């Protein structure tokens, strides 16, 4: 089945065999992960869509693919519109579409290990209104027709040293045990891969770009824990690291482990645990209490060791990015480079640090019109040359033992147009507004999002993604619960120790894209005479912002002051790591403006 049309036809035959009129295919794994292993990439295999968020519905006579605003362009480039209709999730959810497009008596299948309980309730209610029903499948029909589906990965689980973690795993479990006692609960089921990694101070290699291992954890009120992980991933070093308070079980033994919680009061995170886990616990007779995973907030609020590790990782990464920008300043105008060659060169500079474990996501290397695709992923088929008098956008990051990085720079190759410079400067103004804001304790990211958009809004333009996401410590580059966005996570207060991205942008479809991204740390502020507990952001990312794209007269004196101070800090942090022509370039790139 070399074509997506053949794969779709095969899936429809399998649905018919299973007595189903339709099936829902999300981008997801059994842990509700954003980034997933190759074995779980069912949506990409079926449709060709390579984004990190989306779903499809396949009926006997039609099919649809659902994506948010980040992927409006990408989905049309990658998915055949003859096979799948395109639906924006802001306009219609999967559940709403099902309710509007299936007939009475229709039976729609779903895999309970790939959906939340809330989604199942919503979809069931929509279908019930039209006399249709939702049915859990015993086996995923996509897997039945995906004959060369990759096996689950076999990378070992490794201890994550205290010098990077900053807090002993036993102490972390003790905190969870104390929380369970306060809540009068017996156990907490930990399903998110990054939560398991953080809580047990372990890392792995089962998901590209995210150093986690397929595993589940259960922490008990006495501080003991059960860890479910495939036996071949366990080493003697890992056993010694975990200690005798952690009982090891096979990954496939997890459902039986849920049965063993019969009669217990069990905390389960409804956002991070799949519907099958709730169903299994209910069948076992456990008393389920829907609570957020107790490791989520402490994981997001970095301890001092993690903060210092981030600073070191950002300084190292900033030097690698600066070397790349110097190289691009010569190679770009000379011609002959492409999106792929530039991404490969950037990887070379990161690898030359000797400390890179992996990139933190697929590098977004977007030249000209491809830069307008927010989450673009370059391939041999889409690879564009980097040409003169254009913009090149590169969003990239590294995974280091001491921290995770994420940085976007937009560079003018040759001479940018007046429109490019205006939009770039508006994006920069929004970036500065967010970087410099002071806000009272309790403020959410949703309350700050407008700051970054205001200058674009003044011209009647905007961008279709959030302004900021949380970032892990040698973990997921997208980490909750905090976000700086008008949607999703907007109700979560920003707290000291949280790390977020600051990444406003602008995208002109078919022409160019602009994004400026640094990572920032939430920190307490001492303000003379303040009557409130105040917070602000410390910028962690250091690499030059392209002065050739800036229209200085659009910047206020305060904004110009921030930019010059930022570039002075870039010199302070990065210059000691460079020499020769690269150092001379950096000094010129960071020279004061105005």
Automatic annotation (TrEMBL):
Enumerate the CDD domains for this protein: APP
A Pfam family matched by this chain, by name?
Peptidase_M24_C
GO cellular component term, pick one: cytoplasm
Q: Which domain of life is it from?
A: Bacteria
- Report domain Peptidase M24 positions: 309-523
Q: Where is the Peptidase M24 C-terminal domain?
A: 534-593
Can the keyword Ribonucleoprotein be found in this entry's annotation? no
Q: Which InterPro entries match?
A: Creatin/AminoP/Spt16_N (IPR029149), Creatinase/aminopeptidase-like (IPR036005), Creatinase_N (IPR000587), Pept_M24 (IPR000994), Pept_M24B (IPR033740), Peptidase_M24_C (IPR032416), X-Pro_aminopeptidase_P (IPR050422)
Q: Name residues in a coiled coil.
A: none
Keyword entries, A-Z: Aminopeptidase, Hydrolase, Metal-binding, Protease
Q: Which residues form the Creatinase N-terminal domain?
A: 7-129
Q: Does the keyword Metal-binding apply?
A: yes
User: What GO molecular function terms would the record report?
Assistant: metal ion binding; metalloaminopeptidase activity
Q: Which PANTHER family match?
A: XAA-PRO AMINOPEPTIDASE 1
**Family of this protein:** Belongs to the peptidase M24B family.
> What's the protein here called?
Aminopeptidase P family protein
Which organism is this protein's natural source?
Sphingomonas ursincola
Native organism taxonomy: Bacteria, Pseudomonadati, Pseudomonadota, Alphaproteobacteria, Sphingomonadales
């Amino acid at each position: 089945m070399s074509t997506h049309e053949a794969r779709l036809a095969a899936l429809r035959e399998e649905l018919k065999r299973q007595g189903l009129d339709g099936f829902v295919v999300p981008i997801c794994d059994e842990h509700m992960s954003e980034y997933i292993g190759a074995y779980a990439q069912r949506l990409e295999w079926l449709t060709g869509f390579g984004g990190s968020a989306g779903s499809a519905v396949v009926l006997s006579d039609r099919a649809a693919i659902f994506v948010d605003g980040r992927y409006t362009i990408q989905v049309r480039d990658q998915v055949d519109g003859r096979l799948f209709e395109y639906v924006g999730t802001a306009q219609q959810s999967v559940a709403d579409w099902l309710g509007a497009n299936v007939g009475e008596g229709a039976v729609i299948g779903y895999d309970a290990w790939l959906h939340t309980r809330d989604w199942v309730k919503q979809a069931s209610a929509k279908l019930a209104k039209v006399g249709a029903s939702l049915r859990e499948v015993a086996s995923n029909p996509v897997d039945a027709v995906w004959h060369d589906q990759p096996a689950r990965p076999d990378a070992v689980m490794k201890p994550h040293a205290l010098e990077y973690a900053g807090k002993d795993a036993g102490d972390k479990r003790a905190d969870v045990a104390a929380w369970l006692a306060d809540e009068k609960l017996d156990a907490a089921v930990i399903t998110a891969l990054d939560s398991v990694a953080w809580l047990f101070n372990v890392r792995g290699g089962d998901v590209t770009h995210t150093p986690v291992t397929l595993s589940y954890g259960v922490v008990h009120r006495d501080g003991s824990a059960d860890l479910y992980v495939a036996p071949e991933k366990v080493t003697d070093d890992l056993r010694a690291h975990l200690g005798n308070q952690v009982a090891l079980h096979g990954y496939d033994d997890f459902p039986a482990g849920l049965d063993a919680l019969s009669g217990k009061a069990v905390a389960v995170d409804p956002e991070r645990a799949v519907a099958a886990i709730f169903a299994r616990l209910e069948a076992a007779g456990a008393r389920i209490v829907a609570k957020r995973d107790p490791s989520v907030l402490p994981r997001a609020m970095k301890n001092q060791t993690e903060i210092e590790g981030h600073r070191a990782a950002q300084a190292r990464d900033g030097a690698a990015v600066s070397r790349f920008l110097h190289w691009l300043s010569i190679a770009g105008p000379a011609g002959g480079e492409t999106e792929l060659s530039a991404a490969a060169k950037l990887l070379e500079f990161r690898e030359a640090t000797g400390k890179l474990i992996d990139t933190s996501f697929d590098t977004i290397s977007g030249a000209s019109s491809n830069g307008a695709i927010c989450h673009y992923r370059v391939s041999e088929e889409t690879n564009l040359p980097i040409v003169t008098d254009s913009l090149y956008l590169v969003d990239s990051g590294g995974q280091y033992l001491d921290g995770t990085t994420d940085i976007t720079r937009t560079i003018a190759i040759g001479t940018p147009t007046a429109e490019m410079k205006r939009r770039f400067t508006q994006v920069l103004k929004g970036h500065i507004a967010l970087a410099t804001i002071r806000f009272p304790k309790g403020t959410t990211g949703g309350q700050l999002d407008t700051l970054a958009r205001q200058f674009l809004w003044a011209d009647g333009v905007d961008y279709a993604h959030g302004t900021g996401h949380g970032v892990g410590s040698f973990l997921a580059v997208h980490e909750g619960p905090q976000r700086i966005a008008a949607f999703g996570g907007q109700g979560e207060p920003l707290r000291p120790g949280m790390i977020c991205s600051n990444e406003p942008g602008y995208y002109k479809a078919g022409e160019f894209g602009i994004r400026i991204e640094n990572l920032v740390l939430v920190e307490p502020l001492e303000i003379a005479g303040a009557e409130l507990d105040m917070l602000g952001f410390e910028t962690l990312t250091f690499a030059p912002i392209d002065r050739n794209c800036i229209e200085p007269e659009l910047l206020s004196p305060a904004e110009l002051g921030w930019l010059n101070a930022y570039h002075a800090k870039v010199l302070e942090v990065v210059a000691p790591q460079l020499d020769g022509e690269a150092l001379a370039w950096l000094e010129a790139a960071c020279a004061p403006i105005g």
